[in-house]
Amino acid sequence: MKITQEAQEVADRTANAYSFDRYKNWRGVAQALLNYGLTERQAEAVMRSKWMRWAADSDESGATYGNHTSAAILVFLNKTPMVDLLGEVKKLEFETFGGPNDD
């Protein structure tokens, strides 16, 4: 997967996130979230959220701590119906940034 500049920037901004060290390729996670259709701000909110830990905890791939991949968060997101998911992402975005996106 080619990592875009946008994904690199999201990954760099979230390098201090709680679940950063659970994942093998944090930039790959950022790219996967952007490819999934999230905005940079939404991807950042997800990467800073407990969802990343929950995704790693529920990862059925057999990956060990520090070796989870972007597939873990994608599987986690795909378990939520899209209508509910978008609402939940908007809530995360608001909780993380405290207001509407002005983009």
Brief synopsis:
The chain is mainly α and 103 residues long.
Chain-wise SSE layout:
Elements: H1 5-13, H2 26-36, H3 40-47, H4 51-57, H5 70-78, H6 82-97
Describe the structure.
The chain has 103 residues and is an all-alpha fold. It has one domain (5-97). Helices cover 58% and strands 0% of the residues. The longest helix has 16 residues, at 82-97. The mean pLDDT is 92.
Keywords:
mainly alpha, 0% strand, 103 residues, globular, 6 helices
Oligomeric composition of the shown chains: single chain
Task: Please mark out the parts with pLDDT under 50 across 5 or more consecutive residues, or reply none.
Answer: none
Number of domains: 1
Distance between the ends: 26 Å
Tally of DSSP helical segments: 6
Beta-strand share of residues: under 5%
